[in-house]
Write a structure and sequence with these properties.
Globin-like; about 0% strand; binds protoporphyrin IX containing FE
C-alpha cells in the first residue's frame, strides 16, 4: 500500500489535506516578491482549484485535472528557471509544514519537475 501511488494521495490527507497544502503554497508565493509579478491579474481561485486537481491526480488520487495544459496556461508569462525553482521550493516547504513524509514529498516534486520544459520559457 505504501508503495502504490494511491499511498501518496492518502499520505497527503486526500483532498482536504491537499487543499490545505495548496492554500499554504499560494500564501508562500504571495509573500515572495520575486514571484508576485508573475501572478498579477491571474485568477487565483481558479488557479488554486486547478492546482489541487493537478496535484491530487499527480499522486494517484481519484481526480481529473480540468484546467488548461501546462504549456498553454503558462504561455507568455516568461517564467524563468529561477522562478520555477522558487515555486517548487515553496511547494516543498508547504508540504513539509503539512506534515507530509519525505518520500511523498520527493514523489510530488519529481512529478512536477517534469513539467519544467512546458512552463519555463525564458
Ligand atoms: C511545476 C510547477 C507548476 C505547476 C504544477 C503549475 C500549475 C498551474 C496550474 C494548474 C494552473 C491553472 C491552469 C488553469 O487554470 O487552466 C497554473 C496557472 C498559472 N501559473 Fe502555474 N504552475 C507551475 C509553475 C508556475 C510558475 C513557476 C509560475 C510563475 C513563476 C506560475 C505561474 C502561473 C500563473 C500566473 C498562472 C495563471 C495564468 C492565468 O490565469 O492566465 N506557475 N499553473
Amino acid at each position: 500500500m505504501s508503495d502504490s501511488v494511491e499511498g501518496a494521495y492518502q499520505a497527503l490527507g486526500a483532498h482536504p489535506g491537499i487543499r490545505r497544502a495548496v492554500e499554504q503554497f499560494y500564501d508562500r508565493i504571495a509573500a515572495d516578491t520575486a514571484l508576485t509579478p508573475f501572478f498579477v491579474g491571474a485568477d487565483l481561485d481558479r488557479l488554486r482549484t486547478h492546482q489541487v486537481e493537478l496535484l491530487a491526480a499527480a499522486v494517484g488520487g481519484p481526480s481529473r485535472y480540468s484546467g488548461r495544459e501546462m504549456a498553454r496556461a503558462h504561455h507568455g508569462l516568461r517564467i524563468t528557471d529561477a522562478a520555477f525553482d522558487r515555486v517548487l521550493g515553496h511547494l516543498n516547504a508547504a508540504l513539509v509544514d503539512a506534515g507530509a513524509d519525505e518520500r511523498t514529498i520527493r514523489q510530488v516534486l519529481r512529478t512536477l519537475s517534469q513539467m519544467r520544459l512546458d512552463i519555463v520559457e525564458d
